[in-house]
Amino acid sequence: MSTGTLRIGITIGLHQENESLWNNGIKQNAVYLAETLKQCPSIASVHLVNTTVVAITAALPWDQARWPTVTFEQAKDNLDVLIELGGQISADQTAYLKTQGCRLISYCCGFEYVHVMQSVLFNRPMWGYDLFVNQRYDAIWMVPQVATNSQSYFETLRRRPAQVVPFVWDPIFVNQRSQGFEHHGEYRPRSGPKRLTVMEPNNDIVKFCMYPAFIAEEAYRQQPQDVEILHVTNAERLARESKEFIAVMNQLDIVREHKAVFLGRFDTPQFLSQMTDVVISHQIENALNYFYFDVCWQGYPLVHNAYMCSDLGYYYEGNNVKEGSRKLLEVLNSHDAGWQDYLARQRQVLSHYLPGCPQVTAEYERLLATLLQQPIA
């Protein structure tokens, strides 16, 4: 039990009272960070702080006794540090916190430079002329996978150096969502050909389904008898509306022979449990991701190119589809003989990202101590 005195807030931005945890990773990130910071000896309390007008009710998809959730108005006089993560505060709210001696951290867990590029180049409005860049942060913390593309974007606009902090994750939500599924949603071998799954969001180039589909295609050309179906989720719109996507997919044997289907949106635990034997993934500039961790924690073979967690799953390098297909064939040919050892190995690797991991706790404790030694911005 912590004996510290620090009172921490972490912002979220609710859009619905019963908002799903599975539509993006931001709310999960806030909860995982809260659970992590609760382990730090210097911290007395951690609250989630909603910055929108959406009411906080029992419909929230997390335990409010474990992760108490309040409005900004309720929190503003009882904070020593506010970590802006999932909801932005205004200039006036910032000024008020400063009068109370509260320090403000920008916690960056999205590849914002990519979002801005796409907004500008492809007419995806984000803020128009009404851009507010808060320049009164006391620190900028960013998860490792966004530093390579967005660190300079953060630093130039916010006029402060940014530093990499540990990426944290907890299986609590995937476990909770999987309780009602057979074997609690964990992987179990099935006889016969395998169901391949691609679950990229397909919102931008960072996580897009084309190379995973190509990996499936290359493996299918060699061992078609071992593939039952290729599911590509979050792709129904593309398969109906994008002439370019349709034209490319129609070049693939796995599509021409009716072994591929393009589906809408599903939550990860349900689709893994009910529709999946193997997951194929590809990323650009997003080499750590909760999706990978959810898949591997549940023991599903993951064929991926995320170099920051290359010790998870079946790793191939870069954009090498041939290597990815070789990894997929390895899964098809031999994974089930050692599936239990694989599950245990995945969980051992993932233990280094969990709240309570001594190295993670020590690093966040150090970061907070450094912050408190600085004058308030």
From TrEMBL:
Which Pfam families does its entry note?
A: DUF2827
Xref: InterPro entries = DUF2827
Which protein are we looking at? DUF2827 domain-containing protein
